[in-house]
Structures are given as C-alpha cells and as structure tokens.
Amino acid sequence: MSAENVVTISKQNLFYLFLLEHLRKFIFDINMHRDIISMAAEIKATLDKYFKNIEENYVQSQAILLDPRFKKYGFSSNNKFETCKVSLGRKLQEINVQNMSNEPVEELPTTSTVQSSTSTYLETV
C-alpha cells in the first residue's frame, strides 16, 4: 500500500497546520456570519486540544524531520525545526558514544604475507 493512501504520523502536523490556516480565514473575516465564525472557532479549539503540541512530541517531531517529503516544511516555524534537528543530532551522538564505549574491541593478529610478482594467469596463457 502506498504511503499516500494513508495518514502517516509525519502528515498529522501538516494537516493540522493547513486546517488552522483555513479556519483562521473564517474566524477573522469580518463579513462572515457570526454562527460560522463561532463554529470555526469551536473547531479550532478542538483541533488545538488534540494537535497543538505535536511538534513538542519527540517521536512525532522526529518523524516529520526524517520524512523526506516534508523535512523542515512540516514544522510551523523554523525555530521548531532547528530544535528538533539539534535534539536528533544529540541523540545520534549519544548512541554512537554508547556503542563505542560498550563494544569490546577485538584485536586480530596481524601477519604479513609476501605475494609473488608473477601471476598464475600469465603462466597459464
């Protein structure tokens, strides 16, 4: 199944940001009927309740950053993108340092071999 047919974790924030921008058009339109403004504000409040802190969630922000379709464009601000990028970089460095300190290094005996300069291929031709 193609990833485009399902909502992935990295798409959640994009949909949330898109919906917020769309709802703001209704909320701040002075010519809009007040019932529509009220409904848009209620929908925005509900969306904020469930999705406002997606970018602060470590796993979700990493998913957005690591998704090649979105990278930094999946974040609401460049600051949130940079924060996630630095955090992920530190996490990767920690893993690398832990692997270096935890794995015993096995030294293999070294032997030197001298190879003949004549080739067996040339001898058979």
Automatic annotation (TrEMBL):
Designated name of the protein: Uncharacterized protein
Stored InterPro entries: RNaseH-like_sf
Organism listed in the record: Macrosiphum euphorbiae (potato aphid)
